[in-house]
Amino acid sequence: MEQRQFEQASAEVRRQVVATARSYGIDGDDAEDVAQDVMLRLWTVRADLPDESSLQALAFVAARNRSIDFLRAHRTIPLDGIGEPHDQASPHDQLEQSETIRWLEQKLAELPVTEYEVLRLRQVERKSHDEIAAILGIQRASVSTLLARARKRLLQDIQKRNRQ
What we know:
- This protein is mainly alpha-helical.
- The chain has helices at residues 3-23, 28-44, 52-74, 91-110, 113-123, 129-136, 140-163.
- The protein folds into 2 domains: 3-74, no CATH class; 91-163, Arc Repressor Mutant, subunit A, CATH 1.10.10.
């Protein structure tokens, strides 16, 4: 695809990319960021695209993938204050919730120190991977690995507990 063809088709393709991002629940500036990322990537491969229909198809797939990546990157579950007993809960439910909280706190305490710190910084303090790497003085890739290990350990412990 020639540069001129790409430029003519890009306005409509960008609208479609924004619409796709919004269909995944991404609003406002974030949907625009997804569109910008996708359009930049499409620009780099424009010479390999034979026509406008290929551009639109690739734009849809790229928008879907980028939207999913965005949602995964911004999905965090805070560990502070989860499961606090509510006034409307029955005494049995309140007891069960408090036992669950104690169990989770114990499992968090059993994590290796670095894994716990990475998990706490990400989930409670909502730090980015780059910020965590800077705080702990480790590589960014190590942050992802440690976070995955900590989550995997907790998931396995939860699965064991649920089987009992």
